[in-house]
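ok here's the first one, seq then struct tokens
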Amino acid sequence: MAGLTAAPEVLPGVPFARGLQEIAGAGFLLYCTTAFVIIAAKLWFAARSTLEPRSTLERSAGDRP
């Protein structure tokens, strides 16, 4: 047992498992980045729509001269 803990690369599947961990980590970072971009875009559009004045097409008929 002591020999296996000293050199875990000898076990079959350990390099494959490390590769899967790296891919899972990269996928998680991609997921977090995508979620951040979507939330940031949503907040930007929400802030932009509250700051801009309404266009003439969005006004009601009673507002027109």
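and now the second one, same deal
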Amino acid sequence: MSDEIVNRIANSKLKTIDLEDFYPKGIRTVIDIKNWLFHEQILKETDFREHLKNHDWSQYKDQYVALTCTSDAIIPSWAFMLITTHVSPFAKTIVVGNLTALETSIFQDIITHFNVEDFDGKRVIIKGCSNKPIPETAYIQLIEKLQPVVKSIMFGEACSTVPLFKK
């Protein structure tokens, strides 16, 4: 009997995908427009446009930006569109919503461009533990992309997985 310890997981044909490896570096910023409104409730077009004209948009260079209004004001859709015309020359990505919506948008783009050729006919583990804010939707989109080509999909760590799909 051999005393050598064999790492069967390392020697297996399992392919692990860790979405944290795809997490793009860059600052995530929320622009809350409530302070740009009259009494944080009313959008006065002239004042709003003036504020946009005087705002330093270059501060968002290479940032991921979420546009929101945290007051109960009713904001016309053109307001966020107008803000976008100012911030888009600087920002990497712009969404209307919160940080979760922003991360979801970022990962939707990543998954759309994810190449599944290397996983054709393979057993795949989608790693579950993450120190970065990976949106749940990213895992769903990844499964949708992988399922037609892989042999099986599991979730978790190589030592403890939950089977999700088997062809």
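notes on #2: The helical segments are 8-11, 45-54, 77-87, 99-112, 136-146. DSSP finds five helices and seven strands in the chain.
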